[in-house]
Amino acid sequence: MKAIVCTEFAPLDKLQYTEVADPVATGDQVVIQIEAAGVNYPDGLLVQGLYQLRPEHPFVPGMEAVGVIESVGPDVKTLKPGDRVATITTLGGYAEKVLADEARVFPIGPDMDAADTCALLVAYGTSHHALKQRAQLKAGETLVVLGAAGATGVAAIQIGKIMGARVIAVCSTEAKRALALEAGADEAVGYDALKDDIKRLTGGKGADVVFDVVGGAAFDACSRAMARNGRLLIIGFASGEIPKFPVNLSLVKEYSVVGVFWGNFTRYEPKTYAENMAELIGWYAAGKIKPVIEGRYPLSDAAQVLTRVLGRGATGKLVLLP
């Protein structure tokens, strides 16, 4: 089969589109013929050796995929060949086929769009966990979403509105701000005067919850614009700068800085993770959430697509099609 292979931690243009051996299902594993593979920001960090996980080489990146089960191992109990499914994997998604553990495979309906489903897995899964379990967002609170035009940002806007929050989207361009408003945000602002804008839009109170995938100067601004009992969620550092936090701000203003590592959540709390996914799929079926899909690209274009994602040029979700 064809796959994208990382042979060394190196710049994105060193990724290879090449032939590799087909996976074989053993134990409780299944082999999935992939329809679409989602592209995520951590994928680009991973292949450059800049992520928490550092797998042995060579490896195939990609953590989410949608497709049809081709074969199953002898210990699989709930799935069979021909089932249409989605999966979260540590590696292997950027390929024509992927091997997945039965416990990390979710049956999906025949009419669910493959790209939409990819978005529900990591982007919506991360945002849902962040707002529901980590922030415990309440109706009537103000949620500030950084990077609001990206896949996780759009997800946070839509989920925040379902949970009853007032949502302030933060985006770098007018076009991205327009997309965030279309996704359901109540207000959309830029980064230049972020602290002042948050204070202005909250009547001086500050943000109850900040969803931060950006870090850097944007984190610094938000750390000075938090409401009492607020929750500043640390999700990622798309700016490329991991900020330093002056802890006296948390003391004086009485707010919490909360880490969000969705991958750990899925491993340590599988039951809650499954409940979250069921809720997301239900919301999707009911038309309450709708991913923004920017583009569907050939698998061979993985390096260029990752470059776009890491450069913060993408809006919504991007997927690869084998």
From TrEMBL:
One of its GO terms (molecular function) is oxidoreductase activity. It comes from the Bacteria. Residues 10-320 form the Enoyl reductase (ER) domain. SMART domains: PKS_ER (SM00829). It comes from Thalassovita taeanensis. InterPro entries: ADH-like_C, ADH-like_N, ER, GroES-like_sf, NAD(P)-bd_dom_sf, Zn-ADH-like_protein. CDD domains: QOR1. This is NADPH:quinone reductase.
